[in-house]
Amino acid sequence: MEDHDIVALYLARSETAIVETAKKFGAYCRTIAWNILASRRDAEECENDTWLAAWNSIPPNRPQRLAPYLGRITRNLALDRYDQAHAAKRGGFSGVLEELDDCLPSPAMVHDQVEAAETARRISDFLRAQPEQARRIFLRRYWYCDKTGDIARRYGISESKVRVTLHRMREKLKAFLEQEGVAV
């Protein structure tokens, strides 16, 4: 079933929308949740919460592409669940994001949502200007939270190349943001 057909089911408030969404995007959303939570049970609960959130948000939203729409919902739900479960712990998903600490502004420095949105736009601009493979590696690591070994297998390259690519991308991102006047 095509995305626009599934969205039409949501707009018609047909419960079939959830069944079709789960069929088409279940594995995708579970993988996103698993990469953050590392718990099958939590990933499945997050997946189910995604279907409920989609049901509650379509309408009024009318996403053209469901994969990124559902992926964002899943990722946000998984991050919330992770924060609740690991409030006092470090490592795991936090460890992945700590790799970006040296090239991103701290939350305390981003004074309001306008500045945060501008920083996000600049990061998107930076990523669009990068070679496709480097961009994909960066997104697999920092959006989908894939392990470097999984990224290497996905793209048929060595894990060392993945780590070097990520290191270089972080350095380039830091320099780019500093050049753009973003306090890092």
Q: SS-based structural class?
A: mainly alpha
> What is the alpha-carbon Rg in Å?
18 Å
- Please work out how many helical segments DSSP would assign: 9
Arithmetic mean of pLDDT: 87
Oligomer: single chain
The fraction of residues in strands falls at under 5%
In this structure, how is the largest beta sheet organized?
Answer: none
**Low-pLDDT ranges:** none
Could you state the order of secondary-structure elements as H and E? HHHHHHHHH
**How helical, in percent, are the residues?**
over 70%
DSSP strand count: 0
- Straight-line distance between termini: 44 Å
What key attributes describe this structure?
0% strand, mainly alpha, 184 residues, single chain, 9 helices
